[in-house]
Amino acid sequence: MSKPLPRSAADKGGEARTADGLALGLMARRIGFRMRLLQNLLGARVVAAFAPFGLRPGTFTTMALIAANPGLSQIRLAREGGLDKSALVAIVDQLEERGLAVRTRSVIDRRSNSLALTPAGEALMQEMSAAAQATEQCIRDGLSPAEVETLFELLERAYQIVAREDAREPPG
Amino acid sequence: MSKPLPRSAADKGGEARTADGLALGLMARRIGFRMRLLQNLLGARVVAAFAPFGLRPGTFTTMALIAANPGLSQIRLAREGGLDKSALVAIVDQLEERGLAVRTRSVIDRRSNSLALTPAGEALMQEMSAAAQATEQCIRDGLSPAEVETLFELLERAYQIVAREDAREPPG
DNA sequence: TATTGTTATACTCTATAACTATA
DNA sequence: TATAGTTATAGAGTATAACAATA
């Protein structure tokens, strides 16, 4: 408690601060908090970028995961997407109403739905993906290509580390 | 659109997937989404770690920012913390009721409150900070010290890049 | 006239439990 | 008996607007 924290590259030249000059204090060395600061900014951009499409970020994520995993069931999508299965119902309803996705009863297990995007859904997803990537383009431009890869790699490894530990002993 | 994405270190050996094997598709190259995957896991851990204290993560963040910025006003704290000023009233109320923080009218501008932690608030914040750091310890253990520093540095630089661009042209 | 803190209100998300049809 | 999807409902979180005190 009395030992000083090691001075990191991230706060050399003084204590780490927000863009408006607020000191981060104990939050400076919290990975989760540092990610959230960045996501607060990116999230606002994504909401604005998706507004013309009339869909929310979570709905787009749902579309992208369906597209990448044809025949995906709602229960699995809910678990992986970090939302409740009941919350997903409204999202899939909305996608069906707009003709972007379809539910078909699974022939293997008739309790579950096989989800798939329609061609219109595929097309819209590609458009929205481009809009979403544009919100992060400044990061790709401001970092070197190698640094961008390093960021992806470190986020991936951190995620796998935590997921593996959770698998042994869930947090909830 | 027809150009294949460059194969990155983060998804070498095949498409990037969640811990449960779901393909990420277009989300694989989204910095915001990759951070959110990790935060979904960390967030559940932090909520569990804070439950014994009877406080939520946002309340702890508020305490930490007050501690690092003595005399902070509610309006500035709300702006920086990414929440509405009206939402902050309930949080500060709760901190005052539990004797963890105090409001004093600013002598410079009597419209604004100067926020400060009480000694009890300082002590609890230190305890909660240790509990929060413990939720991320496996990442610090699983990555090398240099990699941890690189992760902090890249998150910091990405944040500053986006914040600087937002300052020129806000997204909302 | 603009800003800080507050209150009230409405809206959205989320969490929980129950219900059905299948297994 | 357990699971996938659905529905209903209640609680928490968030956003908006209005107000009093102060600048």
Question: Please, could you describe this protein's structure?
Answer:
- With 172 residues, chain A is mainly alpha-helical.
- Chain A has a single domain (31-168), classed as Winged helix-like DNA-binding domain superfamily/Winged helix DNA-binding domain (Arc Repressor Mutant, subunit A).
- Helices cover 59% and strands 6% of the residues of chain A.
- The first copy, chain A, is built from six helices and two strands.
- Chain A has helices at residues 31-50, 57-68, 74-81, 85-97, 119-142, 145-168; strands spanning 101-105, 113-117.
- A two-stranded antiparallel ribbon of chain A has the order 1-2.
- In chain A, helix 3 (74-81) crosses helix 4 (85-97).
- Chain A is globular.
- Residues 1-12 of chain A have low confidence and may be disordered.
- At the A-B interface, helix 1, helix 2, helix 3, helix 5 and helix 6 of A face helix 1, helix 2, helix 3, helix 5 and helix 6 of B.
- Chain B binds a DNA duplex (23 and 23 nucleotides) through residues 58, 73-75, 83-89, 103, 106, 109-113.
What is the CATH third-level topology name of chain A? Arc Repressor Mutant, subunit A
Helix content of chain A: 55-70%
Enumerate the strands of the largest sheet of chain A in spatial order, edge to edge or round the barrel.
1-2
- Oligomeric nature of the chains: homodimer
Determine the strand fraction of chain A and express it as a percent band: 5-15%
What's the CATH architecture name of chain A?
A: Orthogonal Bundle
Principal-axis shape of chain A: globular
In total, the number of domains of chain A comes to 1
Distance between the terminal alpha carbons of chain A, to the nearest Å? 28 Å
Which pair of protein chains has the largest interface, and what are the residue counts?
A-B, 79 and 79 residues
Secondary-structure element order of chain A, as H and E?
A: HHHHEEHH
How many strand units of chain A? 2
